[in-house]
Structure formats: structure tokens, C-alpha cells
Design goal:
By secondary structure, the chain is mostly helical. The protein has twelve helices and five strands. 51% of the residues lie in helices and 3% in strands. The chain has a three-stranded antiparallel sheet with strand order 3-4-5. The protein has a two-stranded antiparallel sheet with strand order 1-2. It starts with 21 loop residues before the first helix and ends in a 10-residue tail after the last helix.
Length: 396
């Protein structure tokens, strides 16, 4: 098992209090309460730094799959972005050391190329398929770690995961809408029968490529497969799964879920698919300054908030958290003050309702069936509302 990227020593000046708002203070308390509940009820006390998918009290025995673990990793990183004075007793440095240790148990160093398996690898588990979206979530978390702490080793691992993503490109020109990343690595396991190409396999990996381009400088990307690959992923989603593609304003969403190999499209509209395309446009705007990208992000955001108004609770918590982090990335980029306020209003209303109605007596989410995947997503939502908005550009 390859060692995980080390984290640096704690940053100086972390205890400074810059004057947080009441919104930030309230949600910092909620985030810390929910994080403590996550550690108390899902964390495995066996030295592996892993989690259970269900609360320990339900007799959970199996380690969580990578997808839920990535949400706990993201929750920890989102707490790391909160002003230290708002999180008494929380040691972000120690928590990240532990999360990276746990992450190492999913790493398959013998893969071609190496990447993270969907389940814990030997000796603690049996490994599993390699999903391109799962690995994108890890890569984006490591990018955020680098943005918050300047951790070159995290950036290096993120670049390795983007290289893995490039191997998932569908290169068969005879397929409908040629191109696009498959959802799962082909040729083994689920990849023998599942040949779908998804918004959520392409757009997060495009975001990852754009982040890496921004972090490393254009000289490392111009003219090579990495930069071209990220742009190709973004373009494929717009060409294949964009509801607006045949209208007068293409590339403005909403975005469908996936395309099957026979060309049939699953037209389910999930919150997270909209979020990752908002984020991809924001990052393209930051990278290129070209005029079309920020208006696209704003248009997708408006459509998304209209489409899901009053219906966010019907979407999975983990999908909403991905949408919200990308809306907050847009919050930093847009000059539209009304849109910025709408974004905060939407995320705050969701957080308030969840805290009042979807939390059980152990501070677990959702009430009636808490699971790590969903609970960790709520930690993220509360933590992000506790961030200073000036820091939202560091989100990934």
C-alpha cells in the first residue's frame, strides 16, 4: 500500500478571530456537533482510521466503501476551512492525518494505472471496481487540501488520479456521441456489463483537470493530453447530456444523468450533476477569462435553483452537498449580488430545515436511517456555511 501524502504542520495564526457573522457561528456549532457525532457513531476504533457505513449501534461490521469515505474526508477538509476560533477543540491537522491514513486502505498500487478501489483493499478488505467518479472525489479533496495547506504531495496524488481518469475515455468512434468517460473502469468486474457514460464521471474529472491546470501553471498543461482531456470531458457533457443543447442557449443545462451504449439517455435530473457543471464553468472562467463561461455557470445556477425550489429534501444529502459547494464556488466568482444572496439563502434554508427536522437524538442524519454517506454530507453543508465567503475560491 502506497503511503498517503503527508500533511504539513499546523498553519500559524489559526486561532485569530476575524469577526464571524451569526450565520457562520451557528453553522460552525452545527458542523462540529455533527462531526463529533460522526466520529462517535461511525468511526472504527481498530487502528485502521476507517468508518462503518451504518452507525455502530446497528451492529455495523463492514468498513465503508470509498464513496462514503470520501464524504467524511470532504467533511473534515471543509471543517479545516472554518476559522479556528469557531471550532473549539477541533484539531484539523490531527484529523487530516487520520483521514489520509484511512484513505490509504483503498489504494491499489498495482493497478494499471494505480488508483483507488471502491472498497478497502487487502489485508483489511477485498478491494473492488475502480469508479472514475469515486477517484475524482478523492482528487478534488486533495486539491482542496493543497489550496488550504499548500501540500505538494496532495497535488501530486491528485494529478495521478487525473491520469487515471484519462484512461477511461471511450475512444470508439462508432458509439453514439463518441467520447466521454465511462462510469466504471471497463474490462473487469462491473465494467464487463456497465458501459454507461455519466455527467458525474466526466464533469468532476474536468473540474479536477482545471484545478490542476490552475495550480501548476499553464506551462504544465498547454498542448498535452491533460489539458485537452479536461476540456474534452467538459465538452462531451454539453454535447451529450445537456437539456439545452438544441436551444438558442446551449451549455446552460439542466443536465441529464447518463447515456447508455445504445444511445438511450437516462434523463433523471440530479442536483449534483448541475453542481459539477456549474463548477467546471467557474473554473474555465478563472483559467481563460473567456466571456462565455461565467454566464453559463450563472444560467445553470438559476435553472437549478428554480427547478429544485422546495424539492431539495427529495434529493440525496450527498448530492445536495456537491451542488452547494459548487454554488459557493460561483458565489465567489459572480458579480451578481442577487445571485450571491440567492445561493446563501438556498443553502441556509436547506441547512436550517435539516437541522430542525432530519436530525435524530444522537445528532445523526437523516433521522430514521442515518448513514455515513448522508451524515458526512450534512457536516459539509454546515461547515461550508461557516466559511468566510472570501475563501470560497479554495473549494474543490
Amino acid at each position: 500500500m502506497a503511503p498517503e501524502p503527508p500533511v504539513p504542520s499546523p498553519a500559524s495564526g489559526e486561532t485569530a478571530n476575524s469577526g464571524a457573522t451569526s450565520l457562520q457561528r451557528e453553522n460552525a456549532k452545527r458542523a462540529l456537533t455533527a462531526y463529533d457525532a460522526m466520529q462517535a457513531h461511525f468511526y472504527v476504533n481498530d487502528g485502521t482510521s476507517l468508518y462503518y457505513e451504518a452507525p455502530r449501534g446497528e451492529g455495523a461490521k463492514a468498513y465503508a466503501a470509498l464513496w462514503p469515505f470520501t464524504r467524511a474526508l470532504a467533511a473534515t477538509l471543509d471543517l479545516e476551512g472554518v476559522e479556528r476560533a469557531l471550532l473549539p477543540g477541533f484539531n484539523s491537522y490531527r484529523a487530516m492525518v487520520d483521514r489520509l491514513a484511512g484513505l490509504g486502505h483503498y489504494w491499489d498500487a498495482h493497478g494499471n494505472p494505480a488508483a483507488y478501489d471502491s472498497d478497502v483493499t487487502p489485508p483489511h478488505g477485498h478491494g473492488g471496481d475502480k469508479y472514475y467518479d469515486d477517484n475524482a472525489w478523492v482528487g478534488l479533496a486533495l486539491v482542496q487540501h493543497d489550496r488550504l495547506r499548500s501540500v505538494a504531495s496532495s497535488r501530486k496524488r491528485a494529478a495521478e488520479l487525473f491520469a487515471f481518469a484519462l484512461t477511461g475515455w471511450d475512444s470508439n468512434p462508432r458509439h453514439p456521441s463518441p467520447g466521454g468517460l465511462f462510469w466504471v473502469k471497463q474490462g473487469a468486474g462491473r465494467g464487463l456489463t456497465d458501459h454507461t457514460r455519466h455527467t458525474i464521471s466526466n464533469a468532476p474529472n474536468a473540474e479536477l483537470g482545471f484545478h490542476l491546470h490552475e495550480l501548476t501553471g499553464s506551462s504544465a498543461f498547454d498542448g498535452d493530453a491533460q489539458h485537452t482531456g479536461a476540456r474534452n470531458m467538459y465538452d462531451w457533457v454539453n454535447e451529450a447530456l445537456d437539456e439545452s443543447r438544441a436551444t438558442a442557449q446551449p451549455a446552460t443545462g439542466l443536465y441529464f444523468d447518463n447515456m447508455q451504449l445504445d444511445g438511450n439517455i437516462d434523463k433523471t435530473v440530479w442536483t449534483y450533476n448541475q453542481g459539477v457543471m456549474i463548477g467546471a464553468n467557474v473554473l474555465q472562467h478563472r483559467l481563460t477569462g473567456e466571456a462565455q463561461y461565467l454566464p453559463r455557470a450563472e444560467a445553470i445556477a438559476h435553472k437549478t435553483m428554480t427547478h429544485f425550489a422546495g424539492k431539495y429534501s427529495a434529493q440525496p444529502e450527498q448530492f445536495n452537498a456537491i451542488l452547494f459547494r459548487n454554488l459557493l464556488l460561483l458565489h465567489h466568482a459572480t458579480a451578481d449580488t442577487a445571485l450571491r444572496q440567492s445561493i446563501i439563502d438556498v443553502v441556509s434554508a436547506y441547512a436550517d430545515q435539516a437541522w430542525r427536522t432530519r436530525r435524530d437524538s444522537n445528532n445523526l442524519f437523516p433521522k430514521g436511517g442515518p448513514r455515513l454517506l448522508k451524515h458526512a454530507a450534512m457536516v459539509q453543508v454546515f461547515a461550508l456555511l461557516a466559511w468566510a465567503p472570501a475563501q470560497y475560491h479554495k473549494l474543490a
